[in-house]
Design a protein that fits this description.
The chain has 114 residues and is α+β, with helices and mostly antiparallel strands. It contains 3 helices and 6 strands.
């Protein structure tokens, strides 16, 4: 299992309850949720990868279970990993998913232009 399938079920439930149209795609060794053809939130092992407003980045890092996303030795501002106590409860997970959804309309699409 490359990613936590229980976490997948919980995120699916949140997005469906909110009436969000999304696609889930396996990528980066985990699962990524695309909203409006933009990466919104993802799952890597037992953590979520949250794409949030860069203006909220520093504040988010002070939340329980939140840490910088660092694949290359350099933090990616606007992307964080959240684990454990930050997403153990439904309320905690929904908080982070909502932050991702709030930023999604402002996020740049990485979809290739034709």
């Amino acid at each position: 299992m490359a990613y936590n399938e229980l976490l997948e079920d919980r995120i699916d439930h949140i997005l469906k309850d909110k009436g969000i149209v999304y696609q889930s795609k396996k990528m980066m060794g985990g699962l990524c949720y695309m909203v409006d053809d933009k990466m919104c939130v993802g799952i890597v092992k037992d953590e979520i990868m949250a794409r949030i407003n860069p203006d909220l980045y520093e504040e988010a890092l002070n939340k329980p279970g939140c840490k910088e996303m660092n694949f290359t030795g350099r933090a990616m501002k606007g992307f964080v990993f959240v684990e454990g106590e930050g997403i153990d409860t439904d309320e905690g997970l929904e908080y982070w998913v909502q932050l991702c959804l709030d930023f999604n309309p402002l996020a740049k699409s990485s979809k290739k232009k034709k």
